[in-house]
Amino acid sequence: MTDSFSPVIEFRSVTKSYGTTPVIRGIDLSVAQGEVVVVCGPSGSGKSTLIRLVNRLESLTSGDILIDGHSTASYRGAALQRLRTGIGFVFQQFNLYGHLTAAENIALAPRKVLGLSAEEALSRARELLKRVGLSDKEASYPSQLSGGQQQRVAIARALAMQPKILLFDEPTSALDPEMIGEVLTVIRQLAETGITMLVVTHEMGFAREIADRVIFIDGGVILEDAPPEQFFLATRHPRAQRFLRQLLSPLHTTGD
């Protein structure tokens, strides 16, 4: 959580199109140091594209994104690599290397990118596995881990680069329901550390708990930007109201 506004991420009139199809339409958005911003919206709304633009997994069509006040629109090569080094990304699919153990998956980038020795990188990996509750899985391969465990390894891998910003793209969407809680617990703990986070999720109860702000996006446009209590109890935009009714209504049904 943050008390003063010091922008770390700034979207300035950002657009993204695929051919003639616009996906992001002129978005302006600022995220403060230590702020946890949840991005939600219906399928195909542009929310995943929005966060993928931050570390340039997707290229801008127009506009600019500033990180710590520095324009990233023209970043290429080494500059782009430096940008990505400071931004951790956790994907829907875990994207672990199947031929590497959990510890090796985590240690790889610190060795290759940061130049840590094998011993230093392994020590960092062990510390992070402990942090995500997987100390006993150091030598396990991805095929030997549950989906929730693999995603926790993926989170540890993102943290291994000691990023200033963490991006999560529907981190529980590929998990069985009984595994979602263990991943959300780790993210919840991270939210309390002061790291800046952008989280795309459909887990609305979780969003309400961890978010400093909730961004609702549809059609590539931000329709609502509000504190969680306002968004969930008194959202103003009719489209956001309909979205919440549709998403939350199953939570209020009972059955065998």
Structure overview:
The chain is globular. Helices cover 36% and strands 25% of the residues. Strands 6-7-8-3-9-10 form a six-stranded mixed β-sheet. The chain contains nine helices and ten strands. The chain has helices at residues 47-52, 77-85, 102-112, 118-131, 147-159, 177-191, 204-210, 228-234, 238-248; strands at 7-18, 21-32, 36-40, 62-67, 70-71, 87-90, 165-169, 196-200, 213-218, 221-226. Residues 251-256 have low confidence and may be disordered. The chain is α/β, with parallel strands linked by helices and 256 residues long. The protein has a domain at 97-162. The relative contact order is 0.16. Strand 7 (165-169), helix 6 (177-191) and strand 8 form a beta-alpha-beta unit. It is found in: Cell membrane. Belongs to the ABC transporter superfamily. Keywords: Amino-acid transport, ATP-binding, Cell membrane, Hydrolase, Membrane, Nucleotide-binding, Transport.
